[in-house]
Design brief:
Layout lengths: L1 E4 L2 H12 L5 E5 L3 E6 L5 E6 L1 H16 L8 H15 L7 E5 L4 H9 L3 E6 L4 H15 L12 H13 L2 E4 L2 H5 L10 E3 L21 E6 L8 H11 L4 E6 L4 H9 L5 E5 L3 H9 L3 E3 L9 H8 L4 E4 L14 E4 L4 H13 L1 H18 L2 H16 L1
Parallel strand pairs: 1-2, 1-5, 5-6, 6-7, 7-8, 9-10, 9-12, 10-11, 12-13, 13-14
Antiparallel strand pairs: 2-3, 3-4
Length: 388
């Protein structure tokens, strides 16, 4: 198998496949660009790290954040990823299965076809057109021009994704909600729901009571309107809960930074981007996780919070439907709205014991279905079924 991946669970997948002697090569895209192979004893061995890719990413990101609003957008990052993916594809060895990440696997997929490999495209979001609709709605609410939004998919990327979906054998999606957004397309029959997993040994409930008595609500992810943060901040402002705190973890986007600057509420804390270990510590110090996005395949942050023993508030018709039974291990809202979020947070604030019990059931859900081991087992089964 050759793996081109982007998300945290793909690194664990590569390590597991190396131990099982199933991996030929893994190319991991992220802040770094790294190429791995399986060592003689089954360990994942770094073959090459492209420091120049990390440097270029930092330069592009830095310039984008400092540029005027009308000059922002995804174009520089897209151009870099397309160029690098094309160059890396030439190094893909003969393999029986090729597993690539959406948007960065077209050239690799074509090369893998030369080896008669079964090809899979991993899609962590909704169908790109459904994803774009939600981003457009958020842009309209917040007054951001779509062309300046980093996460709005331009036509060149949509066309590339379309070619990936048409050319591959299987499309891996993370939830039933994501699969439904593919239903009207000719390649819908290729979709296969495969739930991701998270490190349940890192993300664990706190061992004992906290030192403080603050009711702490946390959110982890991009702090932007496209994730429903404008709704969450307005709901929090309205509630004005006594001895309570809203903790936002992640990169803050301009439209939310402006909203926070105008807010008179002093109980919103912005932690910025943290390491996975620090995020795990913050989960363990919280009482409730709120994830107001309606644009999700299946959020890994949601699974991490549940693994940490937190009840979660999330929206229906997203991947949350696949892991939350409303009223049992969390709460599901019909959609992202100020009223819905305020009511759900208020209930959790007033029913601490019932909310904590939901968190314990949430942890059980992760242990039963959403660990990294579950993910690897499901994916190897898909490889075997697909390759006959």
């Amino acid at each position: 198998l050759s793996l081109n991946g982007l998300l945290a669970h793909h690194k664990y997948l590569a390590e597991s496949l190396a131990q099982l002697r199933l991996l030929r090569r893994a190319v991991l895209f992220g802040n770094c660009l790294e190429v791995f192979e399986a060592g003689s004893s089954g360990q994942l061995r770094l073959r090459r790290r492209f420091s120049s890719y990390r440097f270029c990413n930092r330069v592009i990101s830095g310039l984008s954040r400092r540029a005027p609003a009308f000059m922002r957008g995804p174009w520089p990052s897209l151009a870099l990823s397309f160029f690098v993916e094309r160059a890396i594809s030439a190094t893909i060895p003969s393999c029986a299965v090729f597993h690539g990440m959406m948007g960065v696997c077209l050239s690799g997929l074509r090369r893998a076809k030369d080896f008669n490999a079964v090809t899979l495209v991993d899609t962590a979001t909704l169908h790109p057109l459904a994803f774009n609709r939600e981003v457009l709605a958020a842009c309209e609410r917040s007054g951001v021009r779509p062309r300046n939004c980093e996460h709005f998919m331009p036509r060149i990327l949509l066309d590339r994704l379309e070619r990936e979906y048409e050319g591959c054998d299987k499309i891996v999606v993370y939830s039933a909600a994501s699969q439904r957004t593919f239903a009207s397309f000719s390649y819908a029959r290729k979709t296969q729901v495969l739930h991701p997993g998270i490190d349940h040994c890192l993300f664990t409930p706190r061992a004992g009571p906290r030192r403080d008595a603050i009711f702490r609500v946390c959110y982890v992810g991009r702090i932007e309107a496209a994730k429903g943060l404008d709704y969450l901040i307005e709901a929090w402002d309205r509630l004005a809960l006594y001895n309570a705190e809203l903790l936002l973890i992640g990169r803050v986007f301009p439209e939310i930074a402006e909203m926070l600057a105008k807010s008179s509420v002093s109980t919103i804390q912005v932690a910025g981007i943290l390491s996975r270990e620090e995020v795990a510590r913050q989960y363990a110090q919280s009482d409730l996780f709120v994830f107001p996005s309606v644009n999700e395949g299946l959020s890994l942050a949601l699974l991490e919070a549940m693994s940490s023993g937190l009840p979660a508030i999330a929206c229906r018709n997203t991947g949350a439907d696949d892991c939350i039974l409303s009223g049992t291990n969390g709460l599901l809202l019909s959609g992202s709205s100020v009223d819905g979020l305020a009511d759900a947070i208020q209930w959790s604030y007033e029913h601490r014991d019932e909310s904590a019990e939901m968190g314990r059931r949430a942890r059980n859900t992760i242990e039963e279905r959403f660990t990294l081991e579950h993910y690897v087992e499901r994916l190897i089964g898909l490889y075997e079924r697909s390759s006959g």
